[in-house]
Amino acid sequence: MGYLTNQRIVLLRSYMRRKNLQAFIVPSTDAHISEYIPEHWESRRWISGFTGSAGTVVVTYHKAGLWTDSRYFLQAANELAGSEIILFKERLPDSIAIADWLKEQLSAGDNVGIDGNVFSAKEALKLKADLEPEKINIVSDYDPFDEIWADRPLLPQQHAVIHNIEYAGETACQKMERLLAEADKNDSNAVWVSTLDTIAWLLNIRGSDVPYNPVVVAHALISAQEKILFVDLHKIDETMAAYLQQEGVKVIDYHQTMAYISALCNLSISVDSSKVSYNIYNLLSERNWVNDTVSEADLLKSVKSPVEAEGFRQAMIRDGVAMTQFLIWLEHSIPDGVVTEYNIGLKLKEFRSRQEHFASESFPTIAAYAANGAINHYHPVPEDCMQIEPEGLLLIDSGGQYLFGTTDITRTIAVGSVTDAMKEDYTLVLKGMIGLTNAVFPAGTRGSQIDMLARRAMWAHGINYRHGTGHGVGHYLNVHEGPQSIRQEENPVTLRPGMITTNEPGIYRDHAYGVRIENMMLTTLAMTTDFGDFYRFETLTLCPIDTTPIIQEMMTAEEITWLNSYNQTVYEKLTPYLTAEENEWLKQKTKEI
Asked: Which terminus of the chain has a lower count of CB atoms within 10 Å, N or C?
């Protein structure tokens, strides 16, 4: 693979020389600044061979580098092997930023190329500001991959479908009215949206343009005067056309987006520069007042309605049944030597697909045994994966897309005898997960302010993990959703009732094993006092937590009480949907400790 990567870099450098570009930056995003993207825009993966969802490649005439975060350090090192690309590890004390590296490699008057159609406005503007003092220019006019990627996939062509009001709980028209009311608070009379899951939520449409994410490639402009969906007209059948017309939405061909923006003028438009391309941002700014703000549409989407919240609860029951049936299969099958990291994903999909309103997996299953558990986003392949032996730890991170909600769950399972070190790490992770679960916090609290509750027990032992603790989850949408998060890095968005986040601390021992336990949680009102509103978390996920690797002496009485109560709740809620034999197994797995 390294040889092929190097050959592709040669093609890119040849293109750069023809265009007088001394460097070129290839992000992981698409024209909608998505995390997960259609194959057409997977240029960074094509040029580097690195398959992780986050990373940026920079190529100069003589050097090439990949910048990625700690989730992918081990994976990137493996996938870059044999190529000339150097791995740069982000967010470490000695990390070098891309702009600083470019200053070292380039000279005054040099040009850095970016494709302004897939580069976020926020990142491009920051890069420009960083390089201007060195008289290094940003050129955003070129997409070299249209020329050098010979068999580049076409844009997806699948039809859009209507998301039933039974699951959505609110019409598109009602959502757009709420959106404009929020924009008005920011002195805006229009909102531009490029984010695919936000458009899907706003208009109550779904699609299959991105693997695992039921979204449609589109842009949207919402104003009091008109509501426009920019979408490939092949995706809109008669039923969808009638539905959009009913909701007051005008359809314009996707390929006319830039021409339409060029004619816009005298609007006050809310735009989130981190969620829109550099080229669209510049066009919108030319003859309109642009209010760069956290997306009002994203904030509305993140706060689930009562109908959506209840949908998640129903999805968790179905997912819990599937997980229980899978865990029974796993326990019975490992001694027979027939379980591999790869076929775990196949079995999970099989059990989930038997559940009511299952649509697809929500992301590729991470089944990581032994040393592979230390690779945060490890994905097994059939030709190169481990067989599960009856010893050690198995980490499984998986999820499902149901019409009434999206799930994301991680369980670490002792599949046989485990070491004392494994037990200690497992217990510390569990203590962290419970610590955050039990948080009670005042209105106005940011995720960064409670993140340490998941890390406190680990920190006392000199242990930490480098990824975030929690991310938002969409409602039959993307498994990673913002704008809220729970992580050490500052995020100004506060946690609010109705927001759903994951809770997933972990410990990773390179070349040995990994431990992560993950539940999904709904922020709810805990109480109102003289000091204001206080919030808490309702745990949504329903799946037993393995108690065999726990060192009970490390747990507090409160933590043991929570664990026993949680496992009992799992048993009570799943029992009506399981056979007598399955219930007996679950009863044993949820016994009090």
From this structure: C
